[in-house]
Amino acid sequence: MEKSRSFCPPPYFVSPVAVRGYPNYMTATPGRLATTQHEDDTISFFVDCNNAGVLFIHAAADGVTISDIIKPVYVPSIVHSFFSLNGLHNYKGITHSLLGIQITDLADGIFIGCSINHVVADGASFWHFLNSWSGISKGSIYLSKPPVFQRWLPDGNAEMGTENISSLQALLSHIWRSAIHNRSFDPDQETNYRFVVGARQRFQEIPDNYFGNAILGTFVTMKAKELVEQGIGNSAWRMNRIIAATTGESFKKVFECWPASPSFVTLSNRDALITSSSPRFNMYGNDFGWGKPIAIRSGSSNKFDGMLTLYCGAEEGSIDIEACFFPETLEAMANDQEFMHIVTV
């Protein structure tokens, strides 16, 4: 997982010593992954909290401005170099840092690039870390919401169903419909939209500051003809129903059954669109002492045709989407007047 923030230049530079405050509460990220061999010839991973350390890099890109990064429609290739753990799969955490932080001085600002192994944390935990770190860098001695590491199998079954289609569900359906239409799919070909559902909202026992992975992947499937011809209302409604049906009991069933019969999802699939991150995360709340972020960008990890990365926009109430499609699909979508009527690039 790779995310970054761009800031205006600070009146001073915060020393990496500020990073030390957070691991007092959290011992997982300075550790490494380790394995356990089982009698049935399977292997499981766990985090060895051995304090091996995190990767911290201070770099400079004197000829690059903030505008060079945030103005282009396409994310500039140089952004890749602002992240420190490029190309590493999760299992590489056995020998590599689980957390990498790179501070890059730009000509007129600061770019903070952070990479964290997804075995350790989900998106909510990632942003909790960033916001806590920024508080420590400004002198906070105690965290208002220290991370919670207790692991348990919840018994709750909170219902999150709603009859109302959210604006986000409608927007994602609009993008899904246009992408499939402009990929020229066979009308009877099945396509699906994959996304993750959070457990924190579905169990009273799991606090917002729970640190770890508390998510479940799910998807909605439609034939290309249905998706294109029936409009976004139908696809948004189906997405809404899938999310509403993902209850606490659904999570509990997966938690109980998955270890006995593990399965893995292939992310890159031309038949599918996949959502990463969430506009509900507090991405602009971290202030290291020189103001709030100007923009958010992600690194090159898990980038493939059909990946959508969601952010809350800098303007309150807005949503930014970083879309990864083949060039011909992007060009066709840009020429799709129905699609472009409600989006800006």
TrEMBL record:
<dbReference type="GO" id="GO:0016740">
    <property type="term" value="F:transferase activity"/>
</dbReference>
<dbReference type="InterPro" id="IPR051283">
    <property type="entry name" value="Sec_Metabolite_Acyltrans"/>
</dbReference>
<protein>
    <recommendedName>
        <fullName>HXXXD-type acyl-transferase family protein</fullName>
    </recommendedName>
</protein>
<dbReference type="InterPro" id="IPR023213">
    <property type="entry name" value="CAT-like_dom_sf"/>
</dbReference>
<keyword id="KW-0808">Transferase</keyword>
<dbReference type="Pfam" id="PF02458">
    <property type="entry name" value="Transferase"/>
</dbReference>
